[in-house]
Design brief:
This protein has 315 residues and is an alpha/beta fold. The chain contains 13 helices and 14 strands. The strands form four sheets. The protein has a seven-stranded parallel β-sheet with strand order 5-2-1-9-10-13-14, sandwiched between helices. A three-stranded antiparallel β-sheet has the order 7-6-8. The protein has a two-stranded antiparallel sheet with strand order 3-4. The structure holds guanosine-5'-diphosphate.
C-alpha cells in the first residue's frame, strides 16, 4: 500500500477534512474525488460548488464564518444585478465570480473539467490532486411531493425547505469515472476515505458513477468514513433533515446503515460512543474521536486519526 490516499468529498464538511489531510500528505499522495452533482449553469457560467469549497479551503481562501465562498469577499456584482432586477437567489461574490468566469472560459476553449480543475488548483497554489468525480455532466435532482427540483433550487433558492422523497442523478448512466481517480484506485492506495459529507447528495453521486463502486471495492484498501452526523444532528446543512424525511435512523447508525456494504470502518464522535457496539455488529470497525472540526488543529488531528485507523484496519 504505497499509493495515495483517495478521499471522496462534497463541499463544506468534506473540505474541512481534506484540509486536515493536506497538512499531513504531500502533493499527489492526496487525491480528492469531488462531487459534481451540485454543478450548474448560472448567468452562462459553470459553477462547481463542491470543487470550489475544496479549492478555497486548501488555498486558505475560504470564509470560515459564513461556511461557504471566499473570505474578504466583496459584492459589487450582486448589488449591480439587484439594481438591474436580475435573479439574485444565488449569491456570487466578486472574487468567487472570477473563478467561475475563468473555469467557464477554459471549458469553452475545450479543456476537460479535470484539466480546468487541475489548472485552477495550481493557480491557487494547491499541490494535492483535486479531481471532479467525472468530466461528464451529472445533475442531482431532489424529488419532493410537489415535484422535482434542480439541486441548487432546492438547496439555495428554497433553503432546503421542501420535504425530500428521493434523489435522481441525471446523466449518471453515461458518466465515466475520472481517470485520475481510477488510476489512484489502481495504484495500491493506502486508504479510501469518505469525508463527513452529505451521504445522499454529496457522496452517493460519486459512488453511483458506473464502475466507481466496483473499483473502490476492488482496490484492496481500507475504506473508512467519518460520520457527518454527530449526536443525531448534522453540523450544517440538510443531511439530518433528509434522513428523517426518508424514514432513516437520524444518527450514526443511519450513516453506518447507508454505507454498510462498502465500509471497513466508521469514525464517530465521542457523543455517539454508546452506539459503537451496534455499528460493529453491522460488520465494520469503529473509531471514536473528536469529530467536530472547529479550527485547523482539529481538522489535522481528525485527519491523522482517520489515517491511523485505516492503517490499523489494513494490518
Ligand atoms: P456541502 O456539499 O457544502 O453541503 O458539504 P458536504 O456534503 O461536504 O458536507 C455537509 C455535511 O458536513 C453535513 O452533513 C455536516 O454535518 C457535515 N459537517 C460539517 N462540518 C463538520 C464537522 O466539523 N464534523 C463532522 N463530523 N461533520 C461535519
Amino acid at each position: 500500500m504505497s499509493g495515495p490516499v483517495l478521499t471522496l468529498s462534497g463541499g463544506v464538511g468534506g473540505a474541512k477534512l481534506v484540509l486536515g489531510l493536506s497538512k499531513i500528505l504531500d502533493g499527489d499522495d492526496l487525491v480528492v474525488a469531488c462531487n459534481t452533482g451540485d454543478d450548474f449553469d448560472h448567468f452562462g457560467l459553470r459553477i462547481c460548488p463542491d470543487i470550489d469549497s475544496v479549492l478555497y479551503a486548501l488555498s486558505g481562501l475560504s470564509n470560515q464564518q459564513r461556511g461557504w465562498g471566499r473570505r474578504d469577499e466583496t459584492w459589487t456584482f450582486m448589488s449591480a444585478i439587484q439594481d438591474l432586477k436580475g435573479p439574485d437567489w444565488f449569491n456570487l461574490g466578486d472574487g468567487d465570480l472570477a473563478t467561475h468566469v475563468l473555469r467557464s472560459e477554459f471549458l469553452r476553449q475545450g479543456q476537460s473539467l479535470n484539466a480546468v480543475t487541475a489548472g485552477l488548483a495550481t493557480r491557487f497554489g494547491i499541490t494535492a490532486n483535486i479531481c471532479p468525480m467525472t468530466d461528464d455532466p451529472v445533475a442531482t435532482v431532489v424529488q419532493t411531493p410537489a415535484g422535482d427540483l434542480a439541486f441548487q433550487h432546492y438547496f439555495v433558492r428554497e433553503q432546503c425547505q421542501p420535504c425530500v422523497t428521493g434523489f435522481r442523478f441525471d446523466g449518471i448512466a453515461r458518466a465515466r469515472p475520472n481517470s485520475q481517480v481510477i488510476a489512484a484506485l489502481r495504484a495500491d492506495p493506502k486508504a479510501i476515505i469518505i469525508a463527513p459529507s452529505n451521504p445522499y447528495v454529496s457522496v452517493d453521486p460519486i459512488l453511483h458513477i458506473p464502475g466507481m463502486l466496483d473499483s473502490i471495492k476492488g482496490a484492496n484498501a481500507p475504506i473508512v468514513a467519518v460520520s457527518p452526523i454527530v449526536g443525531g444532528q448534522a453540523i450544517k446543512g440538510p443531511a439530518a433533515k433528509m434522513m428523517s424525511e426518508l424514514g432513516k435512523d437520524v444518527s450514526v447508525l443511519g450513516i453506518a446503515q447507508h454505507y454498510r456494504d462498502i465500509l471497513d470502518g466508521l469514525v464517530i464522535d465521542h457523543q455517539d460512543a454508546h452506539l459503537a457496539a451496534e455499528i460493529e455488529s453491522m460488520g465494520m470497525r469503529v473509531h471514536v474521536a473528536q469529530t467536530l472540526m472547529t479550527n485547523l488543529e482539529t481538522r489535522v488531528v481528525l485527519a491523522q486519526a482517520t489515517l491511523d485507523f485505516a492503517s490499523e484496519i489494513a494490518q
